[in-house]
Amino acid sequence: MEKRKLYMETYGCQMNFSDSQIVGSIMTDHEFEITENIADADLIFVNTCSIREHAEQRIRARLREFKRYKKINPGLKIGLLGCMAERLKEELLEQEQLVDMIVGPDSYRDLPRLLNIAETGQKAVNVILSMDETYADISPIHTKGVSSFISIMRGCENFCSYCVVPFTRGKERSRTPQTIVEEAQRLFNEGVREVTLLGQNVNSYNSEDGTSFAQLLEKVALVNPLLRVRFATSHPKDISNDLIKTIARHTNICKSIHLPVQSGSDRMLKLMNRKYTREWYLEKINTIKRIIPDCALSTDIIAGFSSESEEDHIETMELMKMVGYDYAFMFKYSERPNTLAAKKYKDDIDEEVKGRRLQEIIDLQQELSYQSNLKDIGKTFEVLVENISKKSKEEMSGRNSQNKVVVFPAQHHKQGDYVQVEVISCTTATLRGKVVN
Ligand code: SF4
User: Which of 86, 151, 158 to mutate to test the pocket of ligand 1 (most atoms within 8 A of CB)?
Assistant: First the structure.
């Protein structure tokens, strides 16, 4: 029987991209094959994000573009997956008539059954959050490239006041270390040379046998010295000295830590329910710098949270300078319905002020990133070769342990090779060099 074609689009965080690989695996086990060509699709899945209003608007605009494919192929079914599906549930079916299926992040095993319902012409919904679903027994389809995600846990219970994730992804639950180490070994055997351990908050990884995140990281690093290990995302309140020492102990655990601070003001951190203070955060940063001097540091920053004063904003900028971040993800505060912040605080910072503060933060970070790259000129880094450079076929690109993009002459190097690159020049976003091994 000819396989039917599934076309998928994924929005949002790395967790969503990892989930789409699980969805792909489930559907290819049910007589589907993945197509990159939307016009060929019998089924379209959109894995959605709900972190900011803008993310949801993008999905709605995209749905309007799908109208013509349904006209061409009336049998085409469309499913919305992920956090927007979980946040809005049945309401989305009323708002978006084109959609046939609404499926939350914990209900992907149910996709084949829901599709059968949708094919009878009824709408199909499953948005039940689970206490124990981790999809640990499902081998995600690994598309291409030398890097891959491994989701080690799901859910988040931190309830930062601005965040929808605890409502759309539910309670925290961790996979067993065995299934994670087996997946890392399988990926290594398939040619993958870098894995990123994923979770909303990997530091609260806590498997039934009591394995801590630091111990898990070590187990994965011991799979093979040629397998690089990264992880995202950490909540500062859970980063342990044991974890920092484990990273320092293994050359194949990458020297880059993403530690979202969100604000440099204690008053804001309290309102955000981040559970640490500025001083405590800076103490952790100093511990990282002391134990892993060449560690790259990145973060997330929110500009314009409820009642943020100019002084609070300046404290954020000052903290950024003190840490000297290598890069950052920076956003304007976007109020999310039903979050603690939406219930308790006013979204009272004018959009223009939010935009101006965000731009100041971005400009500062550009400068910090450039200064960080300038310091790398003359240094030699081990780079994992990933791709032909976007700009020139004569060049290849990869990343060093600090997660910085490095471009160098291609010569005979190929994807998956490790090369020693001496840095000759840089821009804000890229290091350029020559291979010296
Ligand atoms: S740690 Fe906070 S910001 Fe991150 S996913 Fe959990 S609730 Fe959201």
Answer: 158
